[in-house]
Amino acid sequence: MRASILLSGLALLSSAAAAHDPVAHGRTNMPEVFRQLTSAAGEWSGAQDGHPVRVTYTLTGDGSALMETVVPVEAPGSTMITMFTVDGDRLIATHYCAAHNQPQMTAERASELSEGVVFHLTRITGMRTAEDWHNTGLTFVLDDANHITQHWTYAYRGRSGENTFHYTRLGR
């Protein structure tokens, strides 16, 4: 009988804890995740496909948007921008790509940026054909105060692929 009461008590505590877990119930605190994302503001370096890049994160729009600017050191004219914003219970990433299209991706579930925020493609503009190269997703991880990992997925001519980029903060 005691074991039954103990198990019932544990089940009640477990369900009470789950009721207060916003991610478990599809509710999120995207403004808090966005605040964590803004801690990336500053200068970073890294490589994309073996080519060095400089990355800058700038808070803009009176604090309502974080702009990521990726400048290839060897081809500065191929700069790309990703804008991160909050829309209610979603975090939005709109990427202005060197492929001349603009995938908009959303994340609806996240708790900590250190665990990664996963963005999924919701719409895209600027495509000439469905076969054009375009990004289909992004996982953004703030590994620690000085390291970021981004995992991008893409599609091209009916095939999918992925790239992982690592950035290190400069000047700290």
Fold topology:
Blueprint: H1 2-19, H2 30-38, E1 42-48, E2 51-60, E3 65-72, E4 80-87, E5 90-96, E6 102-107, E7 117-125, E8 134-144, E9 147-156, E10 159-169
Antiparallel strand pairs: 1-2, 1-10, 2-3, 3-4, 4-5, 5-6, 6-7, 7-8, 8-9, 9-10
Q: What is the CATH superfamily?
A: Calycin beta-barrel core domain
CATH fold description: Lipocalin
CATH architecture: Beta Barrel
Number of discrete helical segments: 2
Helix-residue proportion: 10-25%
Structural class: alpha+beta
- Largest sheet: number of strands, sense, barrel closure: 10 strands, antiparallel, barrel
Residues in β-strands, percent? over 45%
Mean pLDDT score, rounded?
86
Task: Report the count of strand segments.
Answer: 10
Strand order of the largest sheet: 1-2-3-4-5-6-7-8-9-10
Could you give the order of the helices and strands?
Answer: HHEEEEEEEEEE
Give the overall form.
Answer: globular
What CATH first level would be assigned?
Answer: Mainly Beta
Measure the end-to-end span. 60 Å
How many distinct domains?
Answer: 1
Report the C-alpha radius of gyration, rounded. 19 Å
What does this structure look like?
The protein has about 170 residues and is of the alpha+beta class. The chain has a single domain, classed as Calycin beta-barrel core domain (Lipocalin, Beta Barrel), CATH 2.40.128. Helix content is about 15%, strand content about 50%. Strands 1-2-3-4-5-6-7-8-9-10 form a ten-stranded antiparallel beta barrel. Strand 5 and strand 6 form a beta hairpin. The longest helix is centred in the first third of the chain and has 18 residues. The N terminus is likely disordered.
